[in-house]
Specification:
Residues 117-223 form the TonB-dependent receptor plug domain. Helices cover 13% and strands 46% of the residues. It contains 13 helices and 52 strands.
Length: 921
């Protein structure tokens, strides 16, 4: 079928070209003020895909069917449209303009439009801002965009979010690269830019803050980032970047500064304006930030008694000390753990290889094949600290696009065979060396209990040579034979346990994948009365973790979903009012269909002033992990909420709430202490047991209203402000239940005494179920931004964001952590042309303090202090070598800040880079 369709398109192209008159237009484009030629100017045939760029001499040549119009554009210059009728040579001069005050965006409505008239809040980082960012890379530079929050888990992994409910693994925010969802299917969220384009190949990035599900489906619940890479037809030649830097400067560890290197290459070539290709290769290597906060966070020790001398100490970034017991006449004691630096893989890297083939079948039809291979290592702070180690992420994309449509298919494949859980690794190493009182090493299943026996024996004075009632000596005795970091025995145990999955190891394996096909057609030219776009997609997930995360071993476990959307817009009252209506229907195989409408209006009394209002809805399907995880961690089994995932387990149908089991146990124990006989004590307390009523999981939902203004107060001053109010419900939460072996109720609905006896006899299993909370909460916020194009090429950008979370009447235990500062602001001051060769940029970020709640600390709060960051760079261009030298620093003042509790402290990164740009054009 595909071959027949392609043959038809080629046949139509040949017939069309024989009828139309083909002309060749040549010319030269210069700066109107300096009269110098301009390189990289885009020349497009109006209404077509065909186009080219000027070379280093400002010259171009393009073949087209006449009559036609060509559109000449360049960032920083006014666009021009020129009519052509035959073979001719034309010279065009472009005047400078503040185009970044009103750039063209495509993400807000899936069609090109001026940002001033966008129906929703949208921000854009264009190619000049990518090149000029003082941050270590373009992705880090996104932090200076208003509304955006960024948290660092690793040197190679940063996560972004907008409008609250932030996390280190954000399944509520969609990241697209060339239209491809950048998430590994098994993880359920994009790994920042660990798997994404290098700066050399980034053309622009557009950010929508807030729900975008009406056009982009379930993952765009909190917003989306759409990154576009450079088309080889538009950006030719060889570009090379070498960047060298230092981090860990003065970090207090005494280990000294560490080097970082980032080498990248891009080459693109066009043949006869019909065929083009590009290749990209980059490799970054460095030493990860250290997570070395040893604050005692043990919840069972009073705050005043916590610290390094607490026998029950549970240090934040020490692993293995979570295993603790309360020993008779001694108190709470924890095992001696291992610091993260001895367990993690701090030598991190990111390898990115990319290639794309583009073929223009005719002036209005282009076929694309693209392949991305990514491999890297990063640390990730989730319920534990995880090492995403030698993780491979492979993508294939094929696309057929015209000026009014596209059809795109792609696949994402992850290969993870060396990733592991750092906390589990510390606990498991601790179970390999414990000796009993006779000096014999015990099996891992007995190690913890034996260690506490040794501790108690030593503390109680039954061990010769050990002083009684001495916590330090008791610990030293219990730790005899402990594997020490740096020894061969420790390294061998570490390597073995990383490769061991399940309860006896720390390894995590995943070969999950997804396949996706989507399309869009713009019917506007046919309908004419209003603009109309229609689109849809189909996606299928394939789960393969070899049974380490999902119950998928030896099974063909898959998940299907599809979505359809339409959007209609109409300009009224002489183009002063633009009304847009959108609607999308999505269906996942495990859930009811979801309809998400969006309505917006933009009123523009003049071209400079634009007032907007919108009503938006969004939803988020549970991630694959939320639906299908089936992980037995010993005391509890973590169970995803899809109905098929618990089939035959009798959990939802036959279990008690954990709280009621606790109340039953306390009451029974109190009666027994009073001498009440067992049967009577059981009968007295069994009615405290409450049958659980946990619903199967379903999507989260949000409704939002927004009003705003974006306009040019003067020709050089842009002001933008908006207010939004959003209400959320059906948040995905976890609920713990206890399943006895016996039925929980009798036929008359009363509590079954046999089930109560099961609890007392240990004939039970605990489950952590994924479900939803019925509670509602709301947020509101204001963002404001100012961009001022000052004389002599100076630019000043400033923005501020205020956000307020209202828990309303909700149970705090039923609501995801908000994890967002109330206030944040950014100021950027730059001049890319201080002289013909010299430029600079300075960016300042500030945010207020807030409490971070995460599963890493079992949702107990950790304080994130207020902080500010200063990034700066100065660049010098050597025209004869086509080279730009950039000297810069991210976090210039080297303040070590933590952005998510339990994650590492991040300090300064100081670098120098050389960009050799567009050789061999």
């Amino acid at each position: 079928m595909k071959k027949h369709i392609l043959s038809i398109f080629i046949f139509i192209s040949i017939i069309t070209q024989t009828i139309a008159q083909v002309a060749t237009v040549t010319g030269k484009i210069t700066d109107a003020q300096t009269q110098k030629p301009i390189q990289g100017v885009s020349i497009r045939v109006k209404g077509k895909l065909a186009g080219t760029q000027t070379n280093t001499n400002g010259s171009f040549s393009i073949s087209l069917k006449t009559p036609a119009s060509i559109v000449v554009t360049m960032i920083g210059y006014e666009a021009k449209t020129v009519d052509v009728t035959n073979n001719q040579a034309i010279d065009i001069s472009l005047s400078s303009a503040n185009s970044e005050l009103d750039p063209v965006v495509v993400t807000a409505s899936r069609v090109e439009e001026r940002i001033l008239r966008s129906p929703v809040s949208i921000e854009k980082m264009d190619i000049r801002q990518v090149q000029q960012t003082p941050s270590a890379n373009y992705y880090d530079g996104l932090q200076n965009i208003k509304s955006l929050d960024m948290v660092t888990s690793s040197l190679t992994y940063k996560q972004i979010n907008t409008r609250g409910f932030n996390s280190t693994g954000n399944g509520r925010f969609l990241q697209l690269v060339d239209g491809i969802d950048n998430q590994p299917a098994g993880l359920g969220f994009a790994m920042g830019n660990l798997f994404g384009p290098h700066d050399l190949d980034v053309e622009s990035a557009e950010l929508i803050a807030g729900a975008a599900s009406a056009l982009y489906g379930p993952i765009a619940f909190n917003g989306l980032l759409n990154t576009r890479t450079k088309n080889p037809f538009d950006f030719q030649g060889l570009s090379i970047q070498t960047k060298f830097g230092l981090n860990h400067v003065g970090d207090g560890t005494g280990l000294g500064a560490k080097p970082m290197s980032d080498l990248a290459l891009r080459y693109a070539k066009v043949f006869n304006n019909k065929f083009a290709f590009k290749i990209n290769a980059s490799y970054l290597r460095g030493t990860d930030w250290y997570a070395n906060d040893y604050t005692d966070i043990d919840p069972n020790t009073p705050a005043a008694s916590r610290g390094a001398n607490n026998p029950g100490r549970n240090a934040l970034n020490i692993y293995g000390d979570e295993v603790a017991q309360t020993l008779p006449n001694i108190g709470r004691v924890s095992r001696t753990g291992y610091e993260e630096k001895d367990l993690a893989t701090y030598g991190v890297y990111s390898l990115k290889l990319n290639g794309a083939l583009h073929y223009r079948i005719n002036d209005n039809l282009e076929a694309i094949y693209q392949m991305n291979f990514n491999q890297g290592t990063a640390q990730y702070t989730g319920s534990n600290r995880f090492v995403i180690n030698d993780f491979q992420f492979i993508q294939h994309r094929i696309e057929l696009k015209g000026s009014q449509f596209y059809i795109r298919a792609y696949s994402n494949q992850e290969i993870s065979n060396n990733s592991y859980n750092t906390r589990s690794l510390g606990q498991q190493i601790n179970r390999t060396w414990v000796r009993d009182l006779s000096g014999n090493i015990v099996t891992p299943d007995k190690a913890d209990a034996t260690w506490f026996q040794r501790y108690a024996a030593a503390f109680n004075g039954t061990i010769s040579g050990v002083t009684a009632q001495n916590q330090t000596q008791a610990r030293a005795f219990a730790d005899q034979g402990r594997l020490l970091p740096g020894t061969t025995a420790f390294d061998e145990a570490r390597s073995r346990l990383i490769q061991t999955t399940g309860l006896s190891g720390a390894g995590i394996k995943s070969n999950c994948s997804l396949k996706h096909i989507e399309g869009l057609y713009d019917f506007s030219s046919m309908v004419k009365v209003f603009n109309l776009q229609v689109g849809g997609n189909y996606r299928k997930y394939y789960l393969d973790t070899e049974g380490t995360l999902f119950d998928d071993k030896g099974k063909n476990l898959t998940n299907d979903e599809f979505g359809l959307f339409t959007q209609a817009s109409k300009s009224l009252f002489q183009d002063k009012l633009k009304v847009t209506l959108s609607g999308r229907y999505d269906k996942n195989q495990n859930f009811d269909g979801q309809f998400t409408p969006r309505a917006s209006a933009v009123f523009s009394p003049t071209e400079r002033h634009n007032f907007r209002a919108s009503y938006q809805t969004g939803f988020r399907n549970p991630t694959i992990s939320d639906q299908y995880i089936k992980l037995d961690v010993g005391p509890i089994l973590i169970l995803g909420g899809a109905p098929i995932n618990s089939q035959g387990m009798n959990v939802y149908e036959n279990s008690y709430t954990a709280a009621s089991v606790g109340a039953f146990g306390s009451g029974f124990g109190a009666d027994m202490q009073k001498g009440v006989p067992f049967p009577t004590a059981l009968a007295n307390n069994k009615d405290k047991l409450v049958k659980s009523n946990v619903p199967y999981i379903k999507p989260e939902r949000v409704q939002s209203i927004e009003v705003g203004y974006k306009g040019l107060l003067t020709s050089k001053l842009l002001f933008d402000i908006n207010y939004y109010y959003s209400q959320y419900k059906d948040f995905i939460i976890n609920s713990v239940v206890i399943r006895p072996n016996s039925p929980v109720t009798l036929p008359d609905g009363s509590v079954n005494p046999a089930a109560a006896a099961d609890i007392l006899n240990g004939n039970i299993k605990a489950f952590q179920l994924y479900t939803n909370a019925a509670d509602k909460v709301s947020i509101q916020g204001v963002t404001a931004g100012l961009t001022w194009a000052l004389p002599k090429n100076y630019q000043l950008h400033g923005n501020a964001t205020w956000i307020d979370f209202n828990i309303m009447d909700a149970n705090p235990n039923n609501i995801p952590a908000f994890n967002t500062p109330t206030w944040k602001s950014n100021v950027t001051f730059s001049n890319p042309k201080l002289t013909d060769k010299l430029g600079f940029s300075v960016a300042w970020h500030w945010q207020t303090a807030f409490d971070w709640y995460g599963t890493f600390t079992e949702l107990r709060p950790g304080r994130i202090g207020a902080y500010n960051l200063l990034d700066a760079q100065v660049s010098y261009t050597v025209p004869s070598l086509k080279t730009k030298i950039k000297l810069g620093a991210a976090n210039l003042t080297n303040q070590y800040v933590v952005q998510a509790y339990g994650s590492p402290a991040v300090g300064g990164m100081y670098y120098i880079s050389l960009n050799f740009d567009e050789f061999l054009r």
